[in-house]
Amino acid sequence: MSRLILFNKPFGVITQFSSDGKHATLKDFIPLPGVYPAGRLDTDSEGLLILTDDGALQHRISDPRHKLPKTYWVQVEGVPDEAALEQLRCGVDLNDFTTRPAEARVIDEPAGLWPRTPSIRFRKNIPTSWIELIIKEGKNRQVRRMTAKTGTPTLRLIRWRIGDWALDGLAPGEWREISI
Question: What pLDDT sits at residue 62?
Fold first, then answer.
């Protein structure tokens, strides 16, 4: 039977078990041998990371060809207008590639959200807002590049869901094994 681990990766943790000498690693949180991340999450991003000991499952979760939707809650600088949201929905030209169409909508700050350490930068005269963004790919720093290109740079990025799996009830640094 395959193992499947849901982990709420805190800000500043690298998505690997070996140390780079600067950051906390998965080894600092998950004392299980033989599991590996299905995909990556940048050091400065937070949220759901799935780990498994099943190579085929790991591939199905992380490979964009399987079009598994990934839901992100993105705190951005400014307030996106309808044109910016429509650009996200249609696909954003990032010069080296154009993103697939995404689902994008402005949301209220998610209820029960944990504080980030360190906190995001605060600018008295520039408001922030939240976007829920659902994509079916996941190239390097893609969400950050998409929001920057549409005029609302990312301040905080939380991956909430991958397919049917979500962070429900997991605090930063916590993990749970689920049956599949």
Answer: 84
